[in-house]
Fold this sequence. Notes:
Chain A has about 190 residues and is mainly β. Chain A has one helix at about 95-100; strands at about 5, 15, 20-30, 40-45, 50-55, 60-65, 65-75, 80-85, 90-95, 110-120, 120-125, 130-140, 150-155, 160-165, 175, 180-185.
Amino acid sequence: MANYSTNEFRSGLKVMLDGDPCSILENEFVKPGKGQAFSRVKLRNLKTSRVLEKTFKSGESLEGADVMDQDMQYLYTDGDFWYFMEPDTFEQHQATESAVGDALPWLSEQDVCMVTLYNGSPLSVMPPNHVEIEIIETDPGLRGDTAQGGSKPAKLVTGAVVKVPLFLDQGDVIKVDTRTGEYQGRVK
Amino acid sequence: MDKWQPGASLNTLRRRAAMLSSVREFFKQRSVLEVDVPVMGKATVTDLNIDSITTSVVGEQGYLQTSPEYFMKRLLASGTGDIYFMGKAFRDGEVGLRHNPEFTMLEWYRCGWDDHQLMSEVAELISLLLAEEGGFSWDVTKISYSDCFFDNLGLDPHSAELSTLQLLAAKLSSQSWIDETRANCLDLIFSSQVEPHLPRGITIIYDYPECQAALAQISSNNVGQNVSKRFEAFVNGVEIANGYLELTDASEQGVRFKRDSKARELLKRPAVTMDQKFLAALSSGLPACAGVAIGLDRLLMGALGVNSIDEVLAFSWLRC
Lengths: 188, 320
């Protein structure tokens, strides 16, 4: 992989830091009046998702990370791995539970997710921002209570639990924002 | 990008104009003479960490000045008395949220004053320039470099072993700092561990480490350590001004120039022409004086509470 010097650090650039692939979030040029210039860099460790701050001397460089974001269709899980397919080449990739991580309770078969590949294997999975999933378990719906604000927990077929309005029932399909975990509406 | 519009709003441009006229009024009342020295010269600074922009003039190499200091000191040596300059200065490679390669600098010299007298005047002028619109008055804190360093790190910056500073710098950043110079380690530690904790308002820090003297005199502090008679002013934690009790000794200045040039050579930085006319002026006698430079763009950022220098310039380099 190519090396990138501090003046090429841009938001979104993927680099290796202490053996882990990281994504650069911010690069601030710092220079004391009479002193040497630094780059104060915020990075996200793509393995742990932790954000860290590092200061580099201007001109220092980091090795680029072989990291690629790719849209893939979620196929199925065999309990050990979760399988994704590249839509144009039909190439399949297996992701571990830790790579799937927080996306797990939102995954429905055939949904298109963004899979981050590191050295060719899935490192993390981002579910679509909005998903449509069926309610598998909730208290019986209260008709005529549509105007009142109340809510109740509902379990979805994918495993997520979200707060939904009281009138919804088991078997209803709802739309959820996966970034906030919030109910967005009922799907007819 | 074809954005032709300015970065500063009309309101900001008005505030900038008001700031420039307040500065002129301030110095007029104090009988300090405005001087309009060249921004282009045949020589430039040897400072290791300041890069000059070069240009070509009738076949000769020229440099855009990184500060008006050498020309002003030649005027002082010729007997002008107290003087100030307000205009452009240029530094290559400095582009960022708080840096533009061309910026507005206010620099002035007070003959017969020491650094502490000048610090009071700096605080007075900065308060005046910041207060124009806000209505409230800004707190002024004055603290020595070693006190604010110790308060945040429990370590004396002047007596700490170099290896201790290198270890700390490496811990804060990366292993590549383990053989850095004392000055660079101190800068890294200071900017990441002290600056963010400076009090809000105006803070003046004095008695910088001996290794960061630049053109300041060396003297001993109240516990007998060698320090440089250099100070800096910060507004809400952002570096705004740098001042010295000026070095007047031509031979010591020559030694520092040569040390800088050697260091530039070692680090393979471009060699620069030492300013012989400046050295000659020092030999003929620079009056005892204290001098300071303020970055007016940064000060305007502080006054308006904005984060980016692009918002206080008509056209930052990105828009030129």
